[in-house]
Amino acid sequence: MLAKMDADVERQGRRSPLSADDEASGSDHSSVPLLGARELEVSKDSHCSKASKIILSLVFLEVAAFYGVYLNLIVYLQDVLHGDSASNAATVSFWAGGSYLMPVIGAAIADIYWGKYKTVLVGLSISFVGMAVITTSATLSSLRPPPCEQSARCAPATPSQRLVFFTGIYLCAIGIGGAKAAIVSFGAEQFDDDNGENAAERERKASYFSWYYAVSNLGMLTAGSLLVWVEDRVSWGLGYGVCASFVAVAVVGLAVTAPVYRIVPPVGSPLKGMCQVLVAFTHKVKLRVPEDAAELYDEEHVKTPLLEPVRERLEHTDQFRCLDKAAVVTAGDLEDGNQWRLCTVTQVEELKTLLRLIPIWLTSAVYFIANSQAQTTFVQQGTKTDSRIARGAFSVPAASLTCIETVFVAAYIALYNKSIAPAARRCLGRADAFTPLQLMGLGHAAVTAAVVVAACTEARRLEAARARSTPMSIAWLLPQYVVMAVSDASLSVGQLEFFYDQAPETIRGASTAFYFLSCSLGNFLSSQLVTLVASVTAAGGRTGWFPPDMDDGHLDYYFLLVVAITAANFAAFVYLAKNYTPKRVR
Predict the structure, then answer these.
(1) Tens digit of pLDDT for each residue in 384-399?
(2) Which fold has domain 1-15+33-266?
(3) Nearest alpha carbon to residue 65 among 140, 119, 123
(4) Buried b / exposed e across 561-574, counting CB within 10 Å, b at 16+?
(5) Distances in whole angstroms, Cα of residue 398 to Cα of each of 201, 384, 496
(6) In sequence order, what are the beta bridge partners of 386?
(7) Tens of pLDDT along 126-176?
(8) Least C-beta-crowded within 10 Å: which of 250, 312, 390, 552?
């Protein structure tokens, strides 16, 4: 099934602009001797490999620092600033929402104004200032309330103390959030697959996305274990200081390695061009689209093209043909040169491409309803099991199960890159082991399987609990986390690569921010679903599926509901993937 859904998808990259030397000499690469060409190719491969490894190292530092603040933020607000539980939860949720919104803004700035390198550098620099403020707030006694005494009422933080701390964490949200999406696409820009013709480069770029996700998970694991332990057991100031030092190393490292990177200039505002297509379409809504697409406005033979020379040109596609009216040439259009009345085929195709991507993105948002269970209801399951494993030699807290999933994700990605993908390429006889859409399909299928396993496990646990027998071991939850790790890695890597390859060049940076948006929206939908189910099932005085004591509820029924949602979502994804029209670059 996965092979069918993406059999016709041709992943296209973008040819890098000529270097200054190439433009000056106007030489033909075919005149380069064979030995020299091979040396140039080896040098290029080494250069890309070095640049991508450096960027992945920066990703690790950025992710570890961010989650070093995020994972323990509610504890700091409660134990140090002495806030009440309701306001603390609301504060963390609002801050996290802002942090996950910033990648969209940062990516837009990168695409329109600064380019990805400068956006990442400025974002990390702003984040370092925020980390320094947080560290200072946690270190100086004058910037935090005195510790609570057992017999005395805890004094809340003063407005000035809260102002200093919140200034720091929001600078972190703005800085790291703004750099987060740009650094993903910046790493992908180091690979020039020559409009999809260079199979080896396509393979390296696909591997980069999977390693990016693995490194991100290792960063979260480091934050959730080492950094959180330092903050809780040693000193908040020292823990935040380590986070600040991570960001400082990332800033310095990015600055001194600037000559290593392939830096692509910004390509302008994506919204302007798409708005021009919509306005031109409304002006010409009554016109008929010509049967021959060659009659549509193209700039190949125009002396003063509207598009910049470095912009990729897209071929015409038949989907959403009504939008082609924006490129229909009428009398006076060429004389006026009004870009709000006449658009190019490329501009129209950019809008068409975005319209094709949105439905697939929505299936990813629904996917995260199920994926988020690993951090919520799966952990609740764990709290009702016997945490001892290996005959009592070890005890695994329920909250540590998410860290175990992170380990599984990293292990799966390493196994995929080193064994599964090479074996698949040999068996299939092609350069691409699996296409991004196929990886996303695997993620959708696996997440359904993971929740099915969770439902079966929960049904067995409830049966044992109600029979007053020995509690189920927490080890029974490992299979669902293993399957969820396969799902998480497959969909996330596939989505990052797919949206980067297929997005119009003008929103290539913002396209990677779609991942963070889908994750945020999926978690929001999950929280609303739980609230709705709890309210409906408890109506009329019934116990409901989510009573205070989980042994009296039916979490297994809730899992079956999530299975139904994800199965329907998977079917919708298969339909969209099989009928997807890929972007074609001239």
Answers:
(1) 888 887 776 777 777 6
(2) Growth Hormone; Chain: A; (1.20.1250)
(3) 123
(4) ebbebbbebbebbb
(5) 42, 9, 30
(6) 473
(7) 999 999 999 999 999 888 888 876 445 678 888 899 999 999 999 999 998
(8) 390
